[in-house]
User: Fold this.
Amino acid sequence: MLNVRYLRVFRAIVKSGSVSGAARSLNVTQPAVTKSLRMLEDDLGIALFERVNGRLVITPEAQRLAPEVERLFGVLSGIKGLAEELREGHAGSMTIAAVTTLSLSLVSKAIEHFSLEYPNVRFELTALSTTLAAQHVLTNHVDMGVLDAPAALSGMEVIPLCRSEVGCVMKRDHPLGSKRYIRPTDLQDVPIITFGDDTFTGVNIRNAFYAANTPLKLQCSLNNTMMAYGLVRRGLGVALVDSFPILSGDFDDLTIRAFRPVIATQPSIVFSQTKAVPLVARAFARALVETTEEMIQDRRSLLRKVQGE
Assistant:
């Protein structure tokens, strides 16, 4: 097998036109350059340079080899650059299972920002229910999960993104928009769109109505916040869901009011504890945390405004 160090010496001589010039560019001695050149000629079985009137002249055979050697070093440079990007988490591919609402808001925004800076990263994003997304992570089908679930999840490393609260989403002209806080008693005769009782949030909402001795007039039970927002747009009722779609800025025709008692949600990044996490996934996790903080900061004034309307 050819020694790359010898080929580097050959390349330096071709570029500089002399052994002394090659030695200077490689920061080695002239005897070291001469020895490496001799070893390469022995390996190849051909002469690469000749002395003509005291000058070093490249042979026709070496002239044909030179472009291939240049291409080789171009490939090596690309490999080195790619390795550096992989080491920093700025190249490669990654798979993500995310709760639908978060995939359409926080995750998609983070991918947009990350891809602008690191276009060599390829994403495969699957939107699933919380239960299925967690299963995909635990069974190592994906590199990362983005869930809205309790902080303590067995078999997972959990990185909290933020803390949010269930709000009451309604059309901007809804009569309840005049209230700063919405309580179960305010919703006694109002059609409610919210999560099913097979979710943590859905159970907590039903418990809040039960504690307030107020019947829950359930219009539609679902497992997707975006569907809830769509149904509110169609005038089917108000939704007791999270505020992430409002944070995305895509629902300017709707408003949200704080729900009391507080029902907290905590979106988190999760990794399986039985699978090595790719460096690119770690890098994207950091970007997702930063994007979440930026979105919350950008929309905090909006939420204060709509809650004070």
User: Anything to note?
Assistant: DSSP finds ten helices and 15 strands in the chain. The mean pLDDT is 84. The CA atoms of residues 132 and 186 lie 34 Å apart. The longest strand covers residues 92-99.
